[in-house]
Amino acid sequence: PFVKGAFVGSAVAFAGVATVVFGGSGAARGELLGDGLVFLSAIAWAVSAVAMRPMVARRDPLSTLTISMFGALPILLIWGLGPTLADPVTELSASGWANFVQISLGSGVLAFLGFYAGVRDVGASVATLYQFAVPPLAATIGWIVLGQALGPVQWGGVAVLVSGMLLATRARKAAAQVKSTA
């Protein structure tokens, strides 16, 4: 059911994502296209989670993940096949292979299984709300590991994102309490 406070909280959280993504110095470095693609991916992710909700309700997360790969395959082939074939896999270092396995299994299979289980258990809107934390988390890890400092605007975006998540979560909890007492 539609919960107005949850919608407002989600919109605030989404604004926080936009602030983190676009609030850096990327535009000055000519990286606006990349930032825009990251931002559009957050929109696409939210839409796909809502679209997948009926499927996840009928199937287990592994089946849903497997079926969803058919939609991604053409895009991956168009943009990824050429560079993949041009990169000699026999020359990958041990850390390169370890990174490939981590991205494929950890960030790929396990993360998607967890996400689809979340969509099934708590609903698409709640699961997607917490997915909005990915860009700020990536920025924070980039700051810790690579020394890529977040600017004040980006830290403000993180605060806006967390505020929106808290607002939406509280609104959903309040709506659930009202519904359970009715």
Report on this model:
With 182 residues, the protein is an all-alpha fold. It contains 7 helices and no strands. It has helices at 4-22, 32-58, 61-86, 94-122, 124-131, 134-146, 152-181. Helix 1 (4-22) runs antiparallel to helix 2 (32-58), helix 2 (32-58) packs across helix 4 (94-122) and helix 4 (94-122) runs antiparallel to helix 5.
Summarize the structure.
This protein is mainly α and 182 residues long. It has seven helices and no strands.
Distance from N terminus to C terminus (CA atoms, Å) equals: 15 Å
Radius of gyration: 19 Å
In N-to-C order, the SSE pattern is: HHHHHHH
Range of strand content = under 5%
Q: Mean of residue pLDDT? A: 80
Number of helices: 7
Strands, total number: 0
Contiguous uncertain segments of 5+ residues: none
Write out key terms for the chains shown.
mainly alpha; 84% helix
Please give the structural blueprint:
Layout: H1 4-22, H2 32-58, H3 61-86, H4 94-122, H5 124-131, H6 134-146, H7 152-181
